[in-house]
Design goal:
By secondary structure, this protein is of the alpha+beta class. The chain has three helices and five strands.
């Protein structure tokens, strides 16, 4: 008996994606996200912690790490499209504008190519702030490992 909070594994048929499909997720970024990412990565850049210093820069205040901003795209591809079993093989992202604690960001992916011989998908990716500003954009190539319960 499994006590996992994850949904049942999808069949390979459910991982078939088509050009034009899209998915998105939103979340509000917090100061805790900065602290958790620092713990994970070791990134102690003063732009993420020193309000006085950060205000004196072109950013005008505290900004979250780029990894916090891009992480929402990990969630979109793993949870929504293409879905469970998906990993990034290649990403090409440009960070266009800062994200601050309290901002709500939306990660969106759209399928622009899907191979028929392998579970690989090319995506256009964006992360947008609540005010409509695109803070990250680019492309990604994903591989979706078909997940079969009970098989390693």
């Amino acid at each position: 008996m499994s006590t996992s909070s994850h949904p049942p594994h999808d069949t390979p048929e459910q991982h078939r994606v088509h050009v034009g499909q899209s998915a998105q997720l939103s979340r509000t970024v917090s100061e805790r996200d900065i602290a958790l990412f620092t713990e994970l990565s070791g990134d102690r850049n003063p732009l993420h912690y020193d309000e006085e210093l950060a205000k004196s820069t072109r950013f005008g205040g505290i900004i979250v790490q780029g990894g916090v901003t891009s992480a929402i795209l990990n969630a979109v591809v793993a949870e929504k499209l293409p879905g469970p079993g998906t990993v990034f093989l290649n990403v090409n992202w440009a960070f266009r504008a800062p994200v601050r604690p309290g901002d709500t960001i939306t990660g969106r992916v759209e399928v622009v190519a899907a191979r028929t011989d392998k579970p690989m998908t090319e995506l256009v990716t964006t992360v947008t702030r609540q005010d409509g500003t695109v803070v990250l954009d680019g492309t990604a190539v994903c591989y979706t490992q078909p997940l079969t319960p009970g098989k390693a």
